[in-house]
Amino acid sequence: MPTSISISLKELQNLKNYILKTGLKRATTTTEYELLRIEDGEINIVVYKSGKLVFNDNPKSKLIVEAILEKEKEYDYVLGTDEVGKGEWYGPLVVACVALTPSELAKFREMGVRDSKSIKVPILIQLAQQILKTKLKWKPLTIPPHTFNQKFAEFKRENKTLNELLAWAHSAAIKDMLDLVTYVKAKIVIDKFDVEKTYRRLYGIDESKLTILQTSKETEVAVNVASILAKYTFEKEVDKLNKFYNIDLRKASPSDINPQILPQVAKIHFKNVRAYAQLD
User: Fold this and answer.
1) Helix (H, G, I), strand (E, B) or coil at 62
2) Which of 7, 10, 56, 250 is least surrounded by Cβ atoms within 10 Å, i.e. has the fewest?
């Protein structure tokens, strides 16, 4: 199966230099969207004008991709977080934080990791299991629905928003991970959903050893790995709720569920849930 990754202009130049050095056979592009095509025996690589590189999954192609990718050499670890469950009325909120070494960053890029939203669940589960076999450093922060509801109500009483709750969860996951790794220098990638609130809650960490990057892009490998593992954890937790309560949250609507158990399986701040939940 072909693998797709995004490459930088520097990495494109690395590929062109690799072609000149090794004599790889270039082929004529087949569409207006292609920038460069390589067809040489078992090797099949296409670079698109969008910056995407697609290669066939075999050792020779992987060797080329590994040779041209720029390595993150400045940091011992790159930390990334992502959350899943914010937009679903049912199930927990899960924030996953990963800490990846430079070699792990390269490995996961070659694997073609991308944001979990673009991956169908059966494929995502396989990919997550493949990622977990690498023994990477990661930690999920799972907030079950009843705990989420209590926390959300607490934040609301203090006139704080959902973004404040997310900032608290992301910063807690980051702090937990920093306590687990040993580093001289590390980079933290923070999504720009509300970076000011997250940064404020990171107060107290030793910034002399850290670089904090604010990004809204989904090309950060550490964030994509965190996204996949957060979604994997979310799906497993939903399966547990389904089994315990003998329901199918993925197919049900709040009106189908006993009002007394809705706060245990759903997020009450959603209007469609609140209309049917039996609250104290």
Assistant:
1) helix
2) 10
Per-residue pLDDT tens over the stretch 248-271: 999 999 999 999 999 999 999 999
- 191's enclosing H/E stretch is strand 186-191
Last residue of a domain, one of 220, 238, 256: 238
33 falls within a domain: yes
Enumerate the β-bridge partners of residue 191: 215
Question: What pLDDT sits at residue 192?
Answer: 66
What does the pLDDT read at residue 152? 95
Question: By residue range, what is the domain housing residue 92?
Answer: 77-238
d(CA 275, CA 236): 27
Split into its structural domains, the chain has a count of: 2
Residue ranges of the chain with per-residue pLDDT less than 50: none
Which tokens is 169 given?
């969860």
Could you tell me the two tokens for 250?
């993925």
Residues 30 and 96 in one domain: no
